[in-house]
Amino acid sequence: MRDMLSKQAVNLKPSGIRKFFDIVSEMEDALSLGVGEPDFDTPWHIRDEGIYSLEKGRTFYTSNSGLKELREEICNYIKRKQGVTYDPLHEVLITVGGSEAIDIGLRAVINPGDEVLIPQPSFVSYEPCAIMAGGVPVVIELKAENEFRLTAQELEDAITEKTKILILPFPNNPTGAIMERKDLEEIAEVIRKHDILVMSDEIYAELTYKEKHVSIIEMEGMRERTILINGFSKAYAMTGWRLGYACGPREILEQMVKLHQFAIMCAPTTSQYAAVEALRNGDADVQEMRTAYNQRRRYLMHAFQEMGLECFEPFGAFYVFPCIKEFGMTSEEFAERFLNEEKVAVVPGTAFGDCGEGYLRISYAYSLDSLKLAIGKLADFVERLRAEAR
Amino acid sequence: MREELLAIVERNSRIDLKELAVILGVEEIDVVNELEAMENEGIICGYHTMIDWEKTSIEKVSALIEVRVTPQRGQGFDNIAERIYKYPEVTSVYLISGGYDLLVTLEGKSLKEISGFVSDKLSTLDSVLSTATHFILKKYKDHGTILAKKYEDTREKVTP
């Protein structure tokens, strides 16, 4: 067969993380600071609910949009947290992780040639999803001096006639940056002025360490132009359950449900029952995990300070994003040498966009003891590099 | 700070004070003062070590004993509880709601030693009406720590 493959698929750049994963997996006793998922097990009462649903034989498809009780709980949750109301029947869709919601959300609104604004460094799938939806990704390079927040000016400068939607990835993976109320108010003004849509990926919403998470949907006129994405992976340590959701205006959600229906049918039933329990009785678990992450975050910031490694203080997710420009190496070179010499895996900032050059993503989804061990090795490595340079 | 501090030292009382200050985001002197204050107030009553005696060559047997007693006028259960907790082999005494009054936990070198204690010392106390002794066969979890299994990180090493 001559043209076996889709050119568009072939032309997609493979994820920069994948490449690094391959090197690490060949190394048997490597320590890792490269994980993008919680180290906690899913709280037992949530797992128990999943098991119980299996025992009771709830092994069938749910409706395409997902269990009604779960959609209702999600609406209660958003009402409780953000003070914004969604209609559980028409404005909520349960998806296979937040990732699916990103994919079908973009496909639901993009026409060929539409520009998709993607602030980077950010999660690896926005760009390929935008391309596969027929859109044109336009990268906004976030800056360390703004603590990797998106500013109104940066947004304004990136908007053209063709701009359709802005992806808003905060709290951010990989930088740990958050957007506070005044930041959001400023960009909301630009968004309203240019009449564009927003896809707000708030998968790390529960993991902020300053003030309570603020969502763009709370800003005036934003609910009706925003696809809100969240899920259970990070807040409730449920990555393997593959469960997320999207909320938004009915017109958009109707299209998303259609795409979801044809590609997926419905999200896993067992996971949906477990998620109902998570939303009803999981607040204390989230609080406990958040406290633990915050302790580790403070530990890391302190450790960087002690080894003189430049790093802005991030207040979200479970990542820190230290700068390694002083060593005159690319992020990838640094990460590779660190792995080879100290057997510790970190992810080069460039895996999340070219502007991640000069930075590393270090995850603190590890116990304090594991962190101490790995960070001790980082301190040794940094010291050795500095000695070499002298 | 108290609640978070207590949650940490309850699990790890040997944690370094400097590290404690770092992860709580406060000064070391504040941690020291707060711990001392809580010791003085009797909130922190001791710093113990959790030992899985099963893994040592030292023989130990523990038992839970349900005790029914007659409360005394003006004293309630306090007097009899004190008489029981003064025995060094008794590791804890709780006043319990429900079918019996006191739950006593006991540690001894052998079954014989424990049954000896129950029949000679505990049962013969004036206010004790009856006892029921349950020997512990295996400890799966103690003080919030799972003894049966060790944590293993089964995650992929690098994920987005």
DSSP, total strands of chain A = 12
Structural class of chain A: alpha/beta
Strand order of the largest sheet of chain B: 2-3-1-4
| Overall helicity of chain A | 40-55%
- SSE order of chain B: HHHEHEEHEEE
The H-level CATH homologous superfamily of the largest domain in chain A, spelled out, is Type I PLP-dependent aspartate aminotransferase-like (Major domain)
CATH fourth-tier homologous superfamily of the largest domain in chain B: Lrp/AsnC effector binding domain/regulation of amino acid metabolism (RAM) domain
Tally of separate helices of chain B: 5
Unreliable stretches of chain B: none
List keywords for this structure.
heterodimer, A: alpha/beta, Aspartate Aminotransferase, domain 1, Aspartate Aminotransferase, domain 2, seven-stranded mixed β-sheet, 12 strands, globular, B: 160 residues, alpha+beta, 2 domains, four-stranded antiparallel β-sheet, two-stranded antiparallel ribbon, extended
Task: Characterise this structure.
The complex is a heterodimer of chains A (390) and B (160). With 390 residues, chain A is an alpha/beta fold. In chain A, the strands form three sheets. Chain A has a seven-stranded mixed sheet, with helices on both faces. Chain A has a three-stranded antiparallel sheet with strand order 9-12-11. Chain A has a two-stranded parallel sheet with strand order 1-10. In chain A, helix 8 links the parallel strand 5 and strand 6. The mean pLDDT of chain A is 96. In chain B, helix 2 packs across helix 3. Chain B starts with a helix and ends in a 14-residue tail after the last strand. With 160 residues, chain B is an alpha+beta fold. Chain B has two domains: 39 residues, Arc Repressor Mutant, subunit A (Orthogonal Bundle); 90 residues, 2-Layer Sandwich (Alpha-Beta Plaits), CATH 3.30.70. In chain B, the strands form two sheets. Chain B has a four-stranded antiparallel sheet. Chain B has a two-stranded antiparallel ribbon with strand order 5-6. Chain B contains five helices and six strands. The chains are: A alpha/beta (390), B alpha+beta (160).
